[in-house]
Amino acid sequence: MRSLIGKQAPKFSAAAVVNGHEIVDNFSLEQYKGNKYVVFFFYPMDFTFVCPTELHAFQEKLAEFEKRNVAVVGCSVDSQHSHFAWLNTPKNQGGIQGVTYPIVADLSKSISESFGVLAGSYAPDENGNWVCEGTPVAYRGLFLIDKEGVVRHSVINDLPLGRSVDEAIRVVDALQHFEEFGEVCPANWSKGKDALKATEDGVASYLSKH
C-alpha cells in the first residue's frame, strides 16, 4: 500500500470503548477535525503480552499528549466487547484497567486494511473459499494526524517490536514547532533545541533557541 503521508486519514465509523467503561456505536476520528491532533495507533490483539505494555505506556503519558492538544486513540481487530473485558481486567492480571482513551473495534479488519497495517490479506482459494494469507491482525502502526485530518507521520512495527511513546511525543513537538515557527527539525531534535530554517539560497541554517 502507498504511504498515507500528506493525505487525508481514511474515514471510518466503528464501535469503540471510551473512558474505560462506555461502549459507543459510531466512533469516528472526524470528531477531532479542526480542533485536535490525533495519535491513532494500532496493536495486534487484546489479552496478549506486549500490547498491554504499550497501552499502559500511552496512558501514563496521556497528560503530556493532552497538554499538546492531542487525542490518543487505540485500535485492534478485536470486538468492543473484548476491549471492554480487557479494560475491566486488572493490570496485575494482564489487563489494561485504568486506560481511559478510546479503543476502537475493528472486527471487520477494514480500518486496519485502509491504514495499511493489516498483517494478513484475504483471497479466494481454488475452491472459492476466502482464506487469509499471513496473520489477520494489525501490525503496530502509529499515525500522527493534524487538525485538518492530514497524516503527517507514521511508523509501522512488526508484531514483536514495541514502540516508543516518548518518540511519538517528540514527533508531535516537531510538527507543532514547524507549524508555529516555520522551522524544520533536524535529526534527534527535541523540544527546546535549535531548529533549522531554509535561507533564500536554499541552505539551512541553525537558529537560536526560542
UniProtKB/TrEMBL annotation:
Reading the lineage from the top rank, the first entry is: Bacteria
TM spans, by residue?
A: none
What does the UniProt keyword field contain?
A: Cytoplasm, Disulfide bond, Oxidoreductase, Peroxidase, Redox-active center
Instruction: Identify the catalytic residues.
Output: C51
The UniProt record lists the keyword Magnesium = no
One GO term describing the cellular component: cytosol
- What GO terms are given for molecular function? thioredoxin peroxidase activity
A Gene Ontology annotation in the biological process aspect, one of them, is: cell redox homeostasis
Q: Does the keyword Cytoplasm apply?
A: yes
Q: Which SUPFAM superfamilies match?
A: Thioredoxin-like (SSF52833)
Q: What are the subcellular locations of this protein? A: Cytoplasm
Q: Which residues form the Thioredoxin domain?
A: 3-177
Taken from the record, one Pfam family name reads AhpC-TSA
Summarizing the function annotation, the protein's role is:
Thiol-specific peroxidase that catalyzes the reduction of hydrogen peroxide and organic hydroperoxides to water and alcohols, respectively. Plays a role in cell protection against oxidative stress by detoxifying peroxides.
Family label: Belongs to the peroxiredoxin family. AhpC/Prx1 subfamily.
Protein's name in the database: Thioredoxin peroxidase
* Species of origin: Bacteroides graminisolvens DSM 19988 = JCM 15093
